[in-house]
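Session log. Operator J.P. requested a structure for one protein chain; no other inputs attached. Running the standard single-chain path with token output.
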Amino acid sequence: MPITEAQRLKRRKRCYSTDVSAILGLNPWSNIADVWHEKVYGVKDGRTNQAMSMGNYLEDSILDWFQDSHGPIRRNIHRVYKGKTPLGTHCDAELKATGDPVEAKTSGLTGPLGPEWGAAGTDQIPSYYWIQCHVHMICMGRDLCHVPCLLGNFGFRLYLVRRDDEVVQVIHDRVNAFWDSVKSKVKPDVPPKLDVIHRINRRPSSVTVVDTQLFKDYERTKAEATAESKDHDDAKVALLTAVEDNESAHDPDGNFELTMSSYTRTSFDSKALRKDHPDLYAKYVNETECKRLNVRKVK
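Structure written below.
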């Protein structure tokens, strides 16, 4: 399920299920540095893709299917762990009879189904979902997580993830160590994704000083950039990571300067429009402020 802006602000104070899989190095779309930048600086909402949109649209139908065979559920559950570890979860639902978490998933609808999916009734699901289920169980105090799914070529399936205490301990240890780095503002050793860097909440009119070599690497790789090369993206990430949450930067000698100019991106919330007011397009247009990178050599 998509999260609200209020939920996004709360997420900066704790690590949630998708954060934990990234912290453990198991999330294919995010890494520990992405999560660190989100917690320390805050980031604006990113774009959704077709697979994500389909998952959001189909979530209620999958939960309806599960409810038909397992009984009533409560939807859109938010829980925080009561102990020391800063964990929280937004779970799709919980089974009313037991309080067990229920996490709906889709896969293989817009592309091939991955080999991580096993037989129905097992816990053979992708590792990042497996970790997500454990965060649900930690925060909700349960030992079983139900994972109803809609899978390409297979239709509806139900998987069952049972609590593994060794995995629970690893989650506690790694999340607490990560949170120490957030509080002390010690960056992870790996770089963040370029998309995350562009979405950082930047402090207006703030300026910092950045090593000259980072500017030179950026200019060199920009001149040499090809469609196949990633060197320029890597140089851009290194430069912007050093800029942190500032809006502008320069090198110590004043030979280079960088600015992040704002522009507005308009997106269309078709789901809300279709549900509520199909005749009122303008009411459901979302405008998102973005930052454009400008680097120049001072004459």
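Operator note: Residues 50-70 form the longest helix (21 residues).
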